[in-house]
Amino acid sequence: MTTPADARLDDSAFLAAARGEKPSHTPVWFMRQAGRSLPEYLKLREGVGMLESCMDADLVTEITLQPVRRYGVDAAIFFSDIVLPLRAVGLDLDIVPGIGPVVASPVRTLADVAAIADLTPEHVPFITRAVQQLTAELGGTPLIGFAGAPFTVASYLVEGGPSKEHAKTKAMMFGAPDVWDALMRKIAGIAEGYLRVQVEAGASAVQLFDSWAGALTPTDYQQHVMPHSARVLAAAGKLGVPRIHFGVGTTNLLSLMGEAGADVVGIDWRTPLAEGIARVGDRAVQGNLDPTLVFAPTDVMTSRAAEIIEAGRAAKGHVFNLGHGVIPSTDPGQLKALTEFVQAYPLKGPV
């Protein structure tokens, strides 16, 4: 699949690294860079709910562009939320400040699953418009589209909101496998459709976020979750764009997350990058500076960044990132300094 922006992206360091090619420099972008710590973002979002802002194409465009303008990162990440597609197909949910996604009627039965509509482009015209506007503005900077992975999205639907234990989610997985399988198939289908809309509108890569997968054992992940994530990643692969697969606390799952179909495996800060590279096999990696290190003195932050860049040379490709999202109280000046340091760091050998 090609998009009108392809010719402008030929020199993208991010896309080169994601494909396992040799980039001009180590590319860098930050998860949750679109907003979070930027004063211009906070001003723009005043009085506007999270999901409402995600459904305003002009607002999405501006928020996505803000960190690209300020930091000069090598990729933009589409401003949205992993539960946005659920809201778009009609589920009664909202993102409550200080809590997170809250679902009015948690999923319990096969009938509940059957009541969830499949996502079509007609559900998300604002996504198509925002992506088209962004790719026109971004030029040679690629746009990363994203979706929530089936397990993480299912956990919100089953729990009714955020959970540390995922007890209800696992109870369904183990005790009602028919409902669980139906729910995971439904969410996988929605994720497929959501990513397809973004890529067909011009996104150059995708990231599948499985934030809560670290709550699982490798056996349970492989049996109950991996097939559904693999389906989403396989569908994205047919669109011809690099696929990033990321989870938090997933040291014991990294090899499986790669096998699920990722071109790039995101590694959080808990796992030394060298160890993560050894686990993911012949794939590129993304990461993995501890997000709190941007609060350290600049020289400490850049010293640790240098260690990560050096370790990344052993991978098929390395995209520098934090090991999770930008913390809201982060000083934007530190992210600017970090971006410039990474991009200027000399490449001494194959990456």
Number of helices in the DSSP assignment: 16
Largest beta sheet, briefly? 7 strands, parallel
- Share of β-strand residues: 5-15%
Shape: globular
Helix content: 40-55%
Radius of gyration: 19 Å
Could you tell me the CATH topology label.
TIM Barrel
Structural description of this entry:
This protein is an alpha/beta fold and 351 residues long. It has helices spanning 13-18, 39-44, 50-54, 57-71, 84-88, 110-114, 125-138, 150-159, 167-175, 177-201, 218-224, 226-237, 254-259, 273-280, 298-312, 332-344; strands spanning 76-77, 93-96, 100-103, 143-148, 205-210, 243-247, 264-266, 284-289, 318-322. The strands form two sheets. A seven-stranded parallel β-sheet has the order 1-4-5-6-7-8-9. Strands 2-3 form a two-stranded antiparallel ribbon. Strand 7, helix 14 and strand 8 form a beta-alpha-beta unit. Helix 9 (167-175) packs across helix 10 (177-201) and helix 10 (177-201) packs parallel to helix 12 (226-237). The longest helix has 25 residues, at 177-201. The protein is globular. The protein starts with 12 loop residues before the first helix and ends in a 7-residue tail after the last helix.
